[in-house]
From TrEMBL:
It is found in: Secreted. Pfam families: PA (PF02225), Peptidase_M36 (PF02128), Por_Secre_tail (PF18962). Keywords: Hydrolase, Metal-binding, Metalloprotease, Protease, Secreted, Signal, Zinc, Zymogen. Belongs to the peptidase M36 family. This is Peptidase M36 fungalysin. CDD domains: M36, PA_subtilisin_1. It comes from Fluviicola taffensis (strain DSM 16823 / NCIMB 13979 / RW262).
Length: 861
């Protein structure tokens, strides 16, 4: 049967009945991708040597998935390598085809050899081995479905979802192995494990946590796609209304709730937010629809609980009673969560997180993608505090967003130092989301600085030199050192401590401590400056004595009201689905991956307003941590283009004191935020967040398209190159040098080296540009007026700017090599350089100030 006839029959079949998600993926990728494969395969074989591969490595390929592009007549195809009819799970690439020509390849392709093992282990035995590895109780397995090299076992009493198992190949260290690939969602945990086991020995060779909870009743194999004969015209605009913290508002601390009427987007949610079948008429009057099912999960059973009901009029205008706090206002809380998830869906679909690319919808209206995967959003989830999370399984299975309450943060009078006199007084602190609350009865004891065994550090993560001294005392430890807050408290408690004070390791504020712990003593956090003050006094030999006490009624905040945090969590789903394709949730697992950074950036972008300035400091989580709106929040610094506010560069990712993954992601988001402002400076700002044409909208296009062009298991260089490729594909490369300038400013320049993306300590930063951008730089001022004299010079050069402090100076020779670079921490309006050691010739001097940069040609005599 011809390819054409296959596809015609499929389209007829799609109109006649609903297919399983598996069949839908198989047929749509086959029908959509076979013609393109005829273009892609010869191209890959002809250019195999560019990737140090052989033409034979591309002898057997399949189209695993495809994604849309913002460029016309352009698609991104995920091309999977196969051998013996079995997919190489880590052997694939994203190939972009534009006007029937390959224009870009993002390669994770591998060299194919002969397998060194045999698939003698049965699928059932592989599942049993995985259960043993995870320390889970095994039980009899029931086989539900078996296809070639693919099995589906009943979840039984083992898993919250049925257990899919498939035979795959994987090329590691030039050795090809047969593996069993499977996923298990244990009933007694918050993990959804993706595992791969050696198909001969049963050894686990890969493990990743999807952290997903798909608990509602549409995780079956039934496909909810609407056929062409069923689809009806969208209904007229509705009158549904929601009392929420409407975008671009961030939280209750940033503005009041307002009533928004019919906010669903007519293009991205054409049947409204309460439809699930693509037929005019709402299926639900609660906070449940095609894009999200929002409810409370206070009892942490992972099943949807209470959802507010707007009635037939869909009126979600619920009052808020401040006297009972967030826990007494579930209607208002869940309505805001429902609104924000839908807004994230509708906004980012315009930039390419759409149905074809694997977004989250029950029914996919345009017939592409799989569907059956709206977000399951749990408000005030009882399984934790001081956090939020989002777990993303492959397309066709619902992701889960868990939003937690946050315990008290930045509370005055929680800690009083009684002695020594030099530091006596009350201090602002934050509490922990684990262990007992700070008691109403005072704890007054001496404060003992923990000393790590065999080291001059105070992390309290393992053996402690002065453990005996902690008995009956308050332990003082530093944040960091490779262990969690809860582990620190447990270790100190084992030594007899009655309470623990954790010193923050960054910024000038505190944050609520999250996580889980079996500790039975209270713990609090103080700021880094206060902690340093205490340590100095103790090191001088002074005895510190303090009192910890609950000063009164401490009301928690709710991340369901923090739109930045909701956007951040939803952003994890976007980056997971786009990097490596919607069928693969295992690409953002490595140490240098930037998922946390992309997520922060999503929140920053949709909360911008026209009055914002590039140097303004933007904190994340200031509402839940009870900080001022201009506070630092839960990141090492505020997001700002101003190096006085945020001077982090690529080199900082090597520093183990910068947390992983949040600290690493913070550096990446700092670069993306700079990119946004550079594009706004070039093209202006557009408050139309969906279809505007400003620099901010261009940035959103570039980042979403760039995600689709970023390698699986990425480092910063991969992410940067994805954005450069996106600019070439969408805009013809017109922003190329602007993008290079932005990344080079924070150390991700032309010569930067990410090393092994699986190692967070081998990055090499560089601040240089490619030669074409150096030679093509315009000598125009960007809100600066730089004077350089004398020029030419054979000795000293004076660099002066009367309007803004000089932050960084670079000298680059005409080959692109950086021959001089210096960052100035103090305010400098005038800098003198000695260039006597440079060779004679022309150089480019780039001067960065707080308000912009200027490039000047200089000559060394």
């Amino acid at each position: 049967m011809s390819f054409f006839v296959h596809c015609v029959l499929f389209n007829i079949l799609k109109m006649k009945k609903k297919l399983s998600s598996f069949l839908f993926i198989v047929f749509t990728t086959f029908c959509f991708g076979q013609n393109e494969l005829k273009i892609i395969q010869p191209y890959l074989q002809e250019n195999a040597s560019n990737w140090k591969l052989k033409p034979s490595d591309f002898s057997n390929l399949e189209v695993a998935s495809h994604a849309s592009s913002k460029a016309p007549n352009t698609k991104h195809f995920k091309i999977q390598q196969t051998k013996n009819g079995i997919s190489l799970v880590d052997g694939f690439g994203i190939v972009t085809v534009k006007d029937n020509q390959v224009v870009h390849v993002t390669t994770n392709f591998v060299s194919i050899s002969e397998p060194i093992n045999r698939p003698v282990l049965s699928a059932e035995t592989a599942v049993i081995s995985a259960l043993k590895y995870l320390n889970l109780t095994s039980a009899p397995l029931t086989l539900l479905k078996s296809e070639k090299n693919k099995m589906l076992f009943s979840k039984g009493s083992i898993s919250k979802e049925d257990i899919p198992v498939k035979l795959v190949l994987s090329q590691k260290n030039n050795q090809l192995l047969y593996l069993w690939d499977l996923s298990i969602y244990p009933k007694d945990s918050e993990h959804w494990w993706s595992l791969r086991l050696n198909a001969e020995t049963g050894e686990v060779v890969f493990q990743n946590d999807w952290i997903s909870h798909c608990s509602v009743n549409h995780c079956s194999t039934e496909n909810h796609l609407v056929s062409e004969t069923m689809m009806t015209p969208p209904p007229p605009p509705g009158l549904d209304q929601y009392m929420v913290y409407a975008l671009p508002n961030i939280s209750p601390a940033h503005g009041n709730r307002v009533l928004v009427v019919n906010p669903s987007d007519v293009v991205q949610s054409p049947f409204g937010w309460h439809d699930t079948d693509g037929i005019a008429g709402d299926e639900y009057t609660i906070t449940y629809g095609n894009n999200v099912y929002a409810s409370e999960d206070i009892d942490a059973d992972d099943f949807p609980g209470y959802s507010p009901d707007g009635g037939n009029a869909l009126n979600f205008n619920f009052a808020y009673d401040s006297a009972v706090g967030v826990q007494g206002n579930l209607d208002a809380v869940i309505t805001n969560l429902f609104y924000m998830n839908n807004m994230m869906h509708d906004i980012w679909a315009y930039y390419g997180f759409d149905e074809e690319s694997g977004n989250f919808q029950e029914t996919n209206y345009d017939g592409s993608g799989v569907g059956m995967d709206p977000v399951v959003a749990h408000a005030q989830d009882g399984s934790g505090t001081n956090n939020a999370n989002f777990g993303t399984p492959p397309e066709g299975q619902s992701p889960v967003m868990q939003m937690f309450l946050w315990t008290e943060s930045n509370i005055p009078d929680l800690l009083t130092i009684n002695s020594p006199v030099g530091i006596a007084g009350s201090y602002t602190c934050s509490t922990a989301g684990f262990g007992p609350p700070v008691p109403m009865s005072p704890i007054t004891e001496d404060i003992i600085l923990v000393i790590d065994d065999g080291a001059s550090t105070n992390f309290g993560c393992g053996l402690i030199s002065n453990g005996a001294a902690l008995a009956g005392k308050i332990a003082l430890v530093r944040r960091g050192g490779g262990c969690t807050f809860g582990e620190k408290v447990e270790i100190c408690e084992a030594m007899g401590a009655v309470a623990v004070i954790v010193m923050n390791n960054t910024g000038t504020s505190t944050q609520a401590m999250g996580g889980t712990s079996s500790a039975t003593i209270p713990s609090i956090m103080i700021s880094k400056p206060d902690g340093d003050l205490f340590v100095n006094q103790i090191n001088l030999g002074n005895t510190a004595n303090g009192t910890i006490v609950n000063p009164g009624d401490l009301t928690a905040t709710d991340s369901d009201f923090d739109n930045m945090i909701i956007a951040h969590e939803y952003g994890h789903g976007i980056s997971t689905r786009l990097v490596g394709g919607a069928d693969n949730s295992d690409c953002l697992y490595n140490e240098e991956q930037m998922g946390e950074g992309w997520s922060d950036w999503f929140g920053l972008m949709i909360t911008q307003v026209a009055s914002d300035q590039p140097g303004d400091g933007r904190g994340v989580g200031t509402y839940v941590t009870n900080e001022p709106n201009n506070g630092e929040g839960i990141r090492p610094a505020r997001y700002s283009t101003d190096f006085v506010v945020n001077n982090y560069t690529y080199g900082n990712t090597n520093d183990n004191s910068l947390s992983q993954p949040h600290g690493i992601g913070f550096v990446w988001a700092s670069m993306l935020w700079d990119l946004n402002w550079a594009l706004i400076d070039e093209y202006g700002f557009d408050s139309n967040v969906k279809t505007g044409t400003g620099g901010n909208n261009i940035a959103m296009n570039l980042v979403i398209e760039g995600l689709k062009l970023t390698n699986c298991g990425p480092g910063f260089v991969d992410g940067r190159d994805g954005i450069l490729a996106a600019d070439q594909i969408i805009y013809g490369g017109v922003n190329k040098c602007l993008i290079w300038e932005v990344f080079a400013r924070r150390g991700l320049g032309f010569s930067a080296d990410q090393g092994d993306p699986g190692n967070r300590s081998d990055q090499v930063e560089a601040f240089n540009l490619p030669l074409e951008c150096i030679l093509g730089l315009n000598e125009k001022s960007a809100a600066t007026n730089i004077q350089v004299y004398p020029n030419p010079s054979n000795g000293e050069l004076t660099v002066k700017n009367s309007s803004s402090e000089i932050q960084r100076i670079e000298l680059v020779d005409l080959s692109g090599k950086v021959v001089y670079m210096n960052t100035f921490v103090n305010a400098n309006f005038e800098v003198v350089l000695d260039i006597s050691i440079l060779n004679k010739g022309l150089y480019l001097m780039k001067v960065q100030t707080r308000t912009g940069f200027q490039t000047v040609r200089i000559e060394k005599l």
